[in-house]
Amino acid sequence: MAQPAVRILNRYLLRQHLAPLGFALGALTALLLLNQVAKQFGQLVGKGLPWGVILEVFVLSIPFIVAMTIPMAVLVAVLHTVSRLAQDNEITAMKAGGVSIGALLRPLLGGATVLAVLAFVWNDQLLPRSNHRLRTLLVDIQRKKPSFALKEEAINEVVPGQFFLRAARIDPATNRLSDVTIYELGDAERRRIVVADSGRMAYTPGGTDLYLTLLDGDIREIKRAEPLQFNRTFFHTNQIRVAGVSNSLERTPEDDFRSEREMGICEMAREVRLARMDAARSPLEGRAQILRDLGHLGGIALPNGIIDSSRADTLPGWYCGVLGKLAHLVLPREAQAAQTPTRLVPQTPPGRLQAPVVAQPGVIRRPELGLTPGAGLGEAMRERGSRQRAATYEVEIQKKLAISSACIVFALLGFPLGLRFSRGGAGLVIGVSVAVFAVYYIGLIVGEDLGDRLIVSPFFSMWTANVLFALIGAGLLFLVRHEGGHARGGSWGIASWFAGLRKRRSQA
Length: 508
What we know:
extended
């Protein structure tokens, strides 16, 4: 009869965590989403975007926010539920009935493990796609209205390579400018600089052209055919039309470029392998070029060194292999072809040394007295660049794994905290959660920077915070399991534990 009782207890403990978990996840997600809305709403509305596009921006921001709030919600739920059960003496009753601390912790760790797996799938499959769509949409929005994105006291490129504008003061609400300088470089035969005291921007009804009305200024012009002649024309009012500046939102149909935050683990693992091959190939290419030149000079056939980069296109690891098989079974052939990366393999693999032509008997050949300029230089920089590129992807891989595993770590940390500080109430939950979240995510930010700069390994940079909190949680759990008395109170019972330890030593 003990086994059914244990199952009932496990289900009871898990059910007690469901409501706080859902509430914490929803509240934290809504709070961070409101923060995003507060930061971006004014800019998006000022661009005259449809409400559907504005809503799409915030909806695409939710997957990133949820990836952050899932571990946070686990800690809040465990702290709240365990402290409440301890305050209501339910933990004491369970311990009096022969249920150990380990038996109470096991279902929580099991539920946290399930959430960690779900968080990993979320971070690896859904989050990169939403990040890619969000970045593409934000780039399209940024191109919609150049006047709203102009920066004060900076030279802004309105038309690439042709029209530049600088203003000391820009009012995005009225499109008014002050202390304006315009550089017109579209005509190769002449250069014009327009200076005005103030001005105003407006769009044509179709939204394709930009009109600038400038007040109290002058036009400075020099022609290429007459370099010694300088023209300066003063004006009270001057209108400039800039054609081809669209004010309508044009959606990008497909963007093939993806950063590390827009890739899954398998895609990043493939990029890591390619970067490592490039790093290994860089010094060999320099040496190969030197040996090739020496071979031309001396007529000596040298051995070949080949690095096959085509193997990097294979899917590494069992996880990526399983995903590849599922994609092959589920997706149509067109989608499979679109997801399969293409990498051109050169006809002559890098690092292969071409053997010089050996003269035939009776034929006199003079060796080519030519050396490749700069052969052997710059390989160290190329190798370091490849290593940094590989480290960037490795850090992102470890970050996905570490954030997902934080669900288990926070459950291990929150259980003894809630058990011992049951009288803390909401103050305990809020205070401990804020402190843990701040330390954890600061550790992730600092670790990511150190890992990208090759100062520490990617694993150490992303997993240090997890290991630290796991050790703290294990230590607190050890104190809870060896305490005396009931499960309520505000101290860890360290003094009594040391007293018992001294007593056992004296008895021994």
